[in-house]
Fold:
Amino acid sequence: MRVSVAIDRRPEIADPEGTTILRALKELGFGEVASVRMDRVIHLEVDGDDPDEVKRRVEEMCKQLLANPVLEDFVVTVDP
Amino acid sequence: MRVSVAIDRRPEIADPEGTTILRALKELGFGEVASVRMDRVIHLEVDGDDPDEVKRRVEEMCKQLLANPVLEDFVVTVDP
Structure:
């Protein structure tokens, strides 16, 4: 099964990469950009038959390795 | 307007970060994972009234700065 994990920094956590991109876009003439956040998506291919069980296992992977629970929120989506 | 830009490495381009995560997951006992790809999502807040024009401008930002057209594909989505 294909699984996507969207990992976003929490809103109150600074995003230096996004801030740098915002400044660069303005210097290139894209003055209409008000904010930029850079986040991650992890695409996994996981063996399994039960979407609920696959989702539960991937959430466990997030807690143990993929995400930093202090700084980041994650959303696991099992593709149909 | 909120705009999301999904930037994925082309399938034929190696993803060392994904490969490292795959190995670590297997060592942690998640043997059911067959592949891992790590990609980026950029969330922008852009001033504008016309979704088509906003999308066109963000695609221009991708070509000039956000994406590497040799290694990456991008998809721009203007949130409703």
About this structure: Chain B has one domain: 2-78. Chain B has a mean pLDDT of 96. The first strand of chain B starts at residue 2 and ends at 9. Chain B has two helices and three strands.
